[in-house]
Amino acid sequence: MNSDSFRSERLNGMAGERPVDTLCERFVLDKDHSALLPVCTGLREGRLSLLQVVDALGPYLTHAETNVRLRGTLLLSSVVEHCVSKFNEKEMVVICKFYKEKLKDHYTLLPAILQGFLCLSVSPLLPKGLAVDILKALFCEVQVQSLIQVDRRSIFSIIANFMDMRRDGKRYNLCILLRFLSESFCKQNMIIWLIYN
Predict the structure, then answer these.
(1) DSSP string covering 114-130, please?
(2) pLDDT in tens, 56-96
(3) What region holds the MMS19 N-terminal domain (predicted)?
(4) 1-14 as b/e, with b when 16 or more CB fall inside 10 Å?
(5) If you compute the radius of gyration of the chain from its CA atoms, what whole number of angstroms results?
(6) 28 and 71 in contact (C-beta within 8 Å)?
(7) Strand residues in 10-121 grouped as ranges (E)
(8) Which has the closest alpha carbon to 131: 167, 84, 183, 179?
């Protein structure tokens, strides 16, 4: 099913379409980046919830066409980038779980997924334990050596952000984090990548 037939089928079945549905459609199908601002403004002002945005993005995030899934994931990551400070702990856990599952999707979605993980990695509101979950998912699902430089840099930045992150007034123990990383990296010879890149 191509994007145009998907749009007409979707419009025929949604008589009571909400403004967020239209904004998501404009961003994903029409590639209209101006639709991002009202979505982010609605979230920041409390007129929209993350659940409403994800619900509106649902058909795009699971669409058969990779480019539609990519645009849907890109919109979600852009929303995370602009509104992460408005999310509660439960919402951050759900977003993290979504991105971890999306790592198994088509490789072209990876930059949008990394954008979302990067935004989560700098948030002081990130729930305890999610940093390790994110790192495990990245090291299990991503072949870092085969990535283009900008994506390798994103992964390195995510790791660096977690190493700098403070919890309960204490730095993450660098030795513990490096031990975890070395165990994970050994499976994919990624420790060499860290040393030489």
Answers:
(1) HHHHHHHHT-TTPPTTH
(2) 999 999 999 999 999 999 999 999 999 999 999 999 999 99
(3) 54-167
(4) eebeebeeeeeeee
(5) 18
(6) yes
(7) none
(8) 167
Provide the β-strand partners of residue 166.
Answer: 171
Query: How far, in Å, CA of 133 to CA of 168, rounded?
Result: 19
CA distance 141 to 135: 10
**Helix axes of 36-44 and 50-61: crossing angle, nearest 10 degrees:** 150
Tell me the HSE value of 6 on the side-chain side, using a 13 A CA sphere.
15
From the list 84, 88, 90, 150, the residue with the least C-alpha distance to 114 is 150
> How many other CB atoms sit within 10 Å of the CB of residue 66?
13
Which region holds residue 189: left if phi is over 0, alpha if psi is between -120 and 50, else beta?
A: left
| Tokens 């909400």 found at | 18
Three-class secondary structure of residue 170 per DSSP: strand
- Smallest CA-to-CA distance from 112 within 82, 69, 157, 59 is with 69
pLDDT in tens, 93-129: 999 999 999 999 999 999 999 999 999 999 888 888 8
Alpha carbon separation from 180 to 25, 136, 188 (Å, rounded):
41, 9, 14
Q: In this structure, how many other beta carbons lie within 10 angstroms of the beta carbon of residue 21?
A: 18
Cβ proximity of 142 and 103 under 8 Å: yes
Q: Judge if pTM exceeds 0.85.
A: no
User: What DSSP element (H or E) covers 26?
Assistant: helix 19-28
